[in-house]
Amino acid sequence: MDGGLRIGVLGGVVAERDGVAVDLGGRRQRAVLALLVLGRGAVLTTDRLIGVVWPDEPPPKPQTALQAYVSHLRRLLQPDVPARARTGLIVSRPAGYALQLPPDAVDAWRFERAVADAAAALGEDPGRARSRAEQALSWWRGEPYAEYPGAPWAEAERARLGELHAGARETLLAARLAVEAPAGLIGELSELAVQAPLREQRWRLLATALYRADRQAEALGALRRARDTLRDELGLDPSPALRRLEADILQQNLAPHVRPATELSQPAPAGTGSFGAEVVGARRRVHGRDRELARLREAVAAGRPVLLSGPAGAGKTALLEALTDSAVWGRCPEADGAPPLLPWAEALRGVPGAEAVPELAPLLSDEPGTADADPYRLRRAVAAFLAAQPPPGPLVFDDLHWADRATLDLLVHVAAHAGVPLVAAYRPEAPPAQLTAALARLARLHAEHLRLGPLDPEAVAAIVRDTAPSAPVGIIVRRSDGNPFYAVELARLLGAGEDADAVPAGVSDVVRHRVALLPGPAPTVLKVAAVAGRDLDLDLLVATSGPDEEAVLDAVDAGLLAGLLDADGGRLRFAHALTQEALYAQVTPVRRARWHALIARELQRRGGADPASLAWHYGRAGAGFAGPAADAAAEAARLAEHRGAYADAAVLWRQAATAATTAGRPVAERVARLLTWCGSLVRQGAHAEADAVRAEAIGLARQTGDVRLLARAITAWAVPSLWMHRPYLRRDPAIVAEIEALLAGQALDDEHRCRLLCALISETEDAGPGETAARRALGRDAEALADRLGDPELVGLAAAARLRLTYTGEPLEERERLAARLLATGHELVGRQASAQVAAARGDLAALDAAIAAVEELAERRQLGAGRLTALATRGLQHSLAGRFTDAAASYGELGRAMISAGAHHGEALAFLCRLCLHEASGQDGPALEAQLPRLYEALPAMTREPHAYLLVAAGRTAEARGVWAPERDVPDDFLAQVWHALRITTAVALGAPEAARRSAAVLAPHADQLCGAVTGSMTLAPVAQYLGDAEVLLGRPLEAAEHYRNAARVATRTGAGHYARRARAALDRLESAAP
User: Fold this and answer.
1) Which ranges in 749-791 belong to alpha helices (H)?
2) Does a structural domain hold residue 124?
3) Which residues are registered as beta bridge partners of 395?
4) How many angstroms separate the CA atoms of 268 and 182, rounded?
5) CA-to-CA distance for 48 and 54, rounded, in angstroms?
6) In a domain, 138, yes or no
7) For residue 863, what pLDDT is reported?
8) Least confident of 241-255, 410-424, 523-537, 1004-1018
9) Mean pLDDT of the chain
10) Which residue ranges does the Swiss-Prot or TrEMBL entry mark as DNA-binding (predicted)?
11) Is pLDDT above 60 for 256?
12) Is there a single domain that holds both residue 69 and residue 191?
């Protein structure tokens, strides 16, 4: 083993050998090494490695590519070892590969061991603990696996190492606190607590340091702050250790720190002032509460008492913190045994001069028993002092629902007699009697009452951006119901890559705690209700929870009082969706399935149940109910399609198909379910998943020997669509042969033959120029059959198939005719898409905008994912024509992400081509595009050949361009043909290849009055005439070139594309200048 090799993952993935950095190659090759480090000597299967390195689509021979990466890594990490002997580091096993290195060779392994050593030594040897913790922290270069943000395979390890890093910092400070003067650590501990306020160890260390520095009041303040934070964020009490520390400080039982002699004479370092000031300075931003904050400040300025109410997590404390930096705080503790009037003691210590007033001594003294003074005299003394010596800011009392009687009595008295601004916050759910009485007395003083409701979606979105910018905003807006605490917890969870339906641990803990406090059978009844759904049906709940109706009603009352349920206008439901989800997750799987079955049967017995609800419950009732689940899901899917809810229908068809298989339904029925599911996926643009579903249907149909069933399976995605059904230029020879055999036979009727003809057109999109005429004949035959049968669905299907054949070689009028046929037969989305393509190619901006607005409206109304993708692409094209290149790039970036999310083929590659067209217009982003090429080439070589040569030419690297360009290769006659030919002409002009330019110009010539590539509806280059002019210049025909350039200028001017018009005129000027 090479002892000089060191690998680092605490930061970026790096390596060095004998102190010299090793170039580990590209991102994917480094990912292979990173995964092997994660394996820690265990064998990682090749399937696992391939799935991570190529998460979207592996190259044609992924095993070979992976083996090449491993071979390169072995050579880089062991350059002095003969090739055949490089097998002891990255070891080959029958199932995959493993990394064999000593424990000290990887920084993360060393780091973990040092952190554990430090923690183990802390109790007996603080000096060693400090040394090992400092050593561990010195190896931390930054976020582990930093170049793979958001990668699911790295998230768990990144979180684990991050937790170790946080623990190491705490261990180091604990070790220092054991041997150093505490005053010198308070500032650092305060900062640490603010950075991670839910880590109780940091509060414990801070409070201990403050106590040992003879700052007992601030130590208690720190612990109260910790408790408030835990309650507001999680709804939990502090841990027993933190509660014991608070009790020890209150009772003066905390063991004193044995300080070095030098400490007694040293002043506290600068910048370690009161803890409260530091925390207030680090308060969180408040979103969506501008109106409430303005009213709060107005009331405070007017001197009126203010009551602020809202449920747990509504953001009361955050709003109070935003009020002013000069507020004087009194926090009401939840813990039993806290002395009375503790919030007032905290508040008065924040008012200058209070400690000099003898009458206030009972409040401010730490001596036991001094708070037993005459309550009346004490109330008068406090009010008189505050009236004579107003505090520096408003008196702010938080968590008033936990206040003791004496605190409330004094608060009401001060509000009535002191004339100072006062704000108090509380939870309105089930207030204790003493709070209810105090609120009534404050109301008689005309206290202003502000109630915090749910945040609006914009405010929740702002919280998500602050907390975890990568988290899905829409999901969090829906699931949080406007509750800031839930929004933060969801953002943290989903921003870390967890499943979109997961319940944050903090929320689950809060709900579990609150439900556990409910009486009798209430927790069980509420869990049954959670299984039934967010809205409560009392009759259903009684029928499924047992015969005791009074017990069920008592449980519902308890849920209402606890704020877990809401009764709004006669509608009974869980107060928050996450409350229901958290309760649902707490039910064991066996019990959950049984309750789902009971609920489904009861709904069906009562009649008139929503099919989607039946499908939901039967689908979760276990395999024994798969048959009813399949029927209910299919009925619900048909109803969803009838209502235009196609995204919902796609989910339901998936459920119907899966349940039919589980129930062992006949093959014909299972194939039918798969086909409807496949069609719904195509409408959503999820072509990759549709491909897999179709393959399953074909496999089942082949087993039966039924040619009609096989034909139906092969044509599973034969729904009108202009998107790629299959991976780009990848023909499945077996499917093509099967279609041709079926068409050659006599067993099929005209309907099946029409569908198969359309399927064959889709399956042969990789055809070369020699097959174009035959494919167009297929399209004509399909349209003729559809017309003869008079079936609108088949007419639309044939029209969409013919549209795939007319991107070149046909006039725009033919595409316009086919678009009209689609609209006339009710295929509105595809018809509008085709109309937008025609308008874009012509440069008819008004028609383009009208068509794409209709697409957007349809996509929104009918939940059509494919329509949304079309709209994103076309909006990018519009921005590009107008010269808004930054906006266009943003649209194309969103398009790529949306396609990947939807499961469409080649989202990254299509976005790349759109940005390539932007580069051709603006000259921007060339290096970034070139950097993408290697990754795209591995998956889609046919889609990168012309772009690669073009980008090299654009960068002035003509020699390299000659090495990669292959002008003899046929250009596919597909939707990208115009783009390919334009790029080929540009490269041919730069490299002096007139014959290649001539061939491409001949293909583009019939489209001379169009914008090049705009017929895709997704991207555009300059007018076709621009490239025809460039070709004519190369061919030595300047007069013809000049006419093309004039035409290009006219087209560009008509479309408002000033940059293209200037380019055409500049080319014309060059010609005229060169003329003799």
Assistant:
1) 750-763, 772-789
2) no
3) 328, 422
4) 9
5) 10
6) no
7) 67
8) 241-255
9) 84
10) 1-101
11) no
12) no
Torsion of CA 286, 292, 295, 300, to 10 degrees: -50
Contact 864, 858 (CB under 8 A): yes
pLDDT category of residue 847 using cuts at 50, 70 and 90? very high
What six digits make up the tokens of 110? 């060393």
Does a structural domain hold residue 163?
Answer: no
Question: Rounded to an integer, what distance in angstroms lies between the CA atom of residue 1042 and that of residue 1001?
Answer: 15
Residue 867: pLDDT above 90?
no
**Residue range of the domain that includes 601:** 595-826
CA dist., res. 10 & res. 146, Å (int): 8
Domain-located, residue 270 = no
- pLDDT value at position 1043? 96
* Nearest C-alpha neighbor of 333 from the set 319, 345, 325, 318: 345
Give the pLDDT score at 735.
Answer: 87
Contacts of 256-264 with C-beta under 8 Å, sequence gap 24+, read 256/212, 257/177, 257/182, 257/212, 259/181, 259/182, 259/212, 260/180, 260/181, 262/181, 263/181, 263/183
Mean pLDDT of 979-984: 96
| 75/504 Cα distance (integer angstroms) | 45
Range scoring the smallest mean pLDDT among 877-881, 917-921, 922-926, 1002-1006: 922-926
Could you tell me the pTM of the whole model?
Answer: 0.53
pLDDT higher for 666 or 52?
666
The confidence score (pLDDT) of residue 1064 equals: 95
| Structural domain total, the chain | 7
Query: What's the pLDDT score for residue 252?
Result: 59
Do 888 and 981 lie in a common domain? yes
Written as one letter, the residue type at 505 is A
Residue with tokens 């489209």: 1007
CA distance linking residue 843 with residue 1053, whole number of Å: 10
- Residues 387 and 315: their CA atoms lie apart, in Å, by 31
Residue 71 structure tokens: 């071979």
Q: Residues near 251 by Cβ (< 8 Å), separated by ≥ 6?
A: none
Q: Does an H or E element contain 449, and which?
A: strand 448-451
Whether residues 679 and 540 fall in one domain = no
Between CA 184 and CA 528 the distance in angstroms is 55
**CATH at 100:** 1.10.10.10
- Which of residues 694 and 724 earns the better pLDDT score? 694
Same domain, 469 and 436: no
How far is residue 1043's CA from residue 1026's CA, in Å, rounded to a whole number?
10
In what order do the strands lie in the sheet containing 328-331?
Answer: 328-331, 395-398, 422-426, 306-309, 448-451
Residue 203: pLDDT over 80: yes
Residue 699 phi, psi (nearest 5): -60, -40
d(CA 197, CA 220): 16
